[in-house]
Design a protein that fits this description.
about 120 residues; mainly alpha; 3 helices; about 55% helix
């Protein structure tokens, strides 16, 4: 008996499958859309590319190649530097409103709303 009873059903609609765990365990894939098919194909290509890159890396290490270490280190270094640059760019270009300045066109301020309420109340009297 499992942790949640003899048969536990798990539903993963975003993955297109329903899975029951227990004595009557079964796997029933749901019909996939064209978009899901493309996603799965792309995921398979990424996995294949990773396996090829890993095999090339191991071959380079076994051959004693300097490039087997230099290229991955350079790629990781450039990735980290790009990420840090992007964070700096985001910080430098973000627009921050001061608490002392009224908002410009972002909606009615509390003063404008109060003035409108006063004028409508005096007009009704």
């Amino acid at each position: 008996m499992g942790l949640f009873g003899p048969n536990v059903a798990y539903l993963y609609p975003h993955h297109g499958l329903s899975l029951t765990v227990g004595p009557s365990a079964q796997y029933r894939p749901a019909a996939m859309s064209v978009e899901d098919e493309r996603s799965r194909a792309l995921g398979g290509l990424v996995c294949l590319a990773t396996l090829v890159a890993g095999a090339l890396f191991l071959y380079g290490l076994s051959a004693g190649s300097y490039w087997a270490i230099a290229l991955p280190v350079a790629a990781v270094t450039l990735f980290v530097l790009t990420l840090v640059f992007w964070i700096g760019w985001t910080i430098a270009t973000v627009q921050v409103e001061s608490a002392n300045e009224p908002s410009s066109g972002a909606g009615p301020s509390s003063a404008t709303t109060a003035d409108a309420d006063d004028s409508s109340a005096s007009g009704a009297a």
